[in-house]
Amino acid sequence: MKADNRGLQRGFTLIELLVVLVILSLLAALVGPRLFSKLGKGRQVAAAAQIKLLEQALDQYRLDAGGYPTTEQGLGALLENPGIDNWDGPYLKKGLPKDPWGRPYMYQCPGQHGEYDLFSYGKDGAPGGDGEDKDVTNWDKGP
Predict the structure, then answer these.
(1) pTM above 0.90?
(2) Are 46 and 100 spatial neighbours (Cβ–Cβ below 8 Å)?
(3) Which residues 6+ apart lie within 8 Å of 98 measured at CB?
């Protein structure tokens, strides 16, 4: 005797799949914006951490060279000797990082806020802004 296999087949109906898709869509709509705002905050925090690392490299440079690199020498002086006798670099192991938005960090020496100014303009690449567009600087320690 042959058994009837139709009763043994199992699977999901179209309605069950649609219900699951609707639930997943609702969850994505509720959770997605919160995750994207965290991503932006994470980039601000990453930029602040990179600025701190660059500050340490600049301090090591100053100990050897007797001063910080000029604006003209820029942060490249941390990687290649700009003609300083006591230069003992490179002061960065992995090269000069770009900010989390893919742009180079801005450096001015002498600075308007201290011996030097080191900063990123944030996501928008323009001075000022709020949220992800806020500037990340070495003189304002909060991201």
Answers:
(1) no
(2) yes
(3) 104, 105
Q: How far apart are CA 30 and CA 10, in angstroms?
A: 32
Angle in degrees, CA 39, 93, 83, rounded to 5: 125
Which DSSP string do the residues of the chain spell out, in sequence order?
----GGGT-----HHHHHHHHHHHHHHHHHHHHHHHHHHHHHHHHHHHHHHHHHHHHHHHHHHHHSSPPPTTT-GGGGTS--S-TT------SS-PPBPTTS-BPEEESS-SSSS-EEEE-TTTTSS--SGGGS-EESSS---
Number of Cβ within a 10 Å radius of residue 46: 16
pLDDT by 10s per residue, the chain, length 143: 555 555 566 777 888 888 888 888 888 877 767 666 666 678 889 999 999 999 999 999 999 999 999 999 999 999 999 998 999 989 999 889 999 999 999 999 999 999 999 999 999 989 988 888 899 999 986 54
